[in-house]
Amino acid sequence: MTTSRAHPEPTRPELTDFAGQWAVLLTSHRRDGTGVGTAVNLAVEGDHAYFRTPGKAKKVRRLRRDPLVELAPATPDGKPVGPEMRARVRLLDHGSEEDRHAARLLRRKYPVVQGALVPLAHRLMRTRTLHYEVRTAPADGAA
Hints:
Distance between the termini: 19 Å
Shape: globular
Oligomer: single chain
Mean pLDDT: 88
Structural class: alpha+beta
């Protein structure tokens, strides 16, 4: 990644609705195409965003098989409160600079939940914390 961290890109219009949201409904898809929604915390930076999940979560397998998802602004319990958009996720390399950067952004936006509670929960679950990058995708799901 070559963008300067000192001068972050302005938030893209597609992501503006998500920048101030406490929770976002992330819908991944089972093999049969059925959508499975999960509320996640999202940290937006320029033209992309980041979220984290425990490595043992079922959505990890769904995202590995199909990286196309839908995102919608949501309440903390996952009820959508705005329009959804298509996006593509990418698993970040564990321990990479980008992985650490995503963790810092999430801790900064959600200091109690992502700074203390979620890391503790992942340790208690004895699972690795995985970070994903989210980028907007065309409405038809191509590329």
